[in-house]
Amino acid sequence: MKEMTLNTNEGVRMEHTVRLEDDTIGTVDTDSLDGQHPSNFVGEVVNVHLHDENGNPIEVSGKLAEVLD
After folding, report:
1. Which of the residues in the chain have pLDDT under 50?
2. Domain count, the chain
């Protein structure tokens, strides 16, 4: 799912769904990647956002394996 939000300070923020090497699925936005597409970071450690089993938002780090969208 791609989501675009206008941030008046930073420009347009794109959010991408990604998979980490441990099969964790989460989202990463281009703001946290210096405006670059996440495919440029495959094999590198990134922070992704997701929700725990109780629905609380969490952030985890891991090696980026694949950009799903």
Report:
1. 1-9
2. 1
